[in-house]
Amino acid sequence: QNKLTGVCFGNVIFSKHKILKSRVITFKGSTNLSLYADIVINNDTIRLFNNHLESYNISFPSLIKRIFNKDKEVEYISNEILKVHTKIKNTLLRRSKQVGIIEEKISESKYPTIICGDNNETPMSYAYHRFSKSHKDTFKESGKGFSATYAYCWPLLRIDYIFVPVEYHCLKHTTLEINNSDHYPIIADFAITK
């Protein structure tokens, strides 16, 4: 919960199926995190990961206002751009470490794994590449259109994903255009197969 605004944020896993065990995976020096839960569905158990990878925390409208203020010197503008570049670089490094930690937890699982959440990156990113090496992207398998998930840049950015084991059969992937957040929720229907 944010102490200034009282707004709650973070990850959560809800299930109508029995949860055997759940854990929090924290990332050093970050408010971002991952959760996983072992969930029993009929006679099968799966491990579901819910990730929120490192955010850029850059306000591009604010940056543009600062840069295009007519009173600013070229040196000031250059410094602002350099700060953003450094912030992006550090975010990418943190995010790649977070992906490594999650991959380690995935490899330790004795159950099939489902990976979902906010990667804060496009399908051309490191996180997407790593997760899609061993899992299927439900949108790629059964989605339609752009399926962008970041509301402020609709229809351009798809940064939220559901990855399922390659043997699962993806039936449907839907993005709900609901304005309760800066992200649109995604839903995937798939058949658990062995």
> Averaged pLDDT, please?
88
Radius of gyration: 19 Å
Strand order of the largest sheet: 1-2-3-4-6-5
What gap, in angstroms, lies between the N and C termini? 40 Å
What is the fold's blueprint, element by element?
Elements: E1 18-26, E2 33-41, E3 44-52, H1 60-67, H2 74-108, E4 113-118, H3 126-134, E5 135-137, H4 138-142, E6 160-165, E7 169-175, E8 186-191
Walk me through what this model shows.
This protein is an alpha+beta fold and 194 residues long. The protein is built from four helices and eight strands.
List keywords for this structure.
194 residues; alpha+beta; 6-stranded mixed sheet; two-stranded antiparallel sheet; 4 helices
Structure at a glance:
By secondary structure, the chain is an alpha+beta fold. The protein contains 4 helices and 8 strands, in the order βββααβαβαβββ.
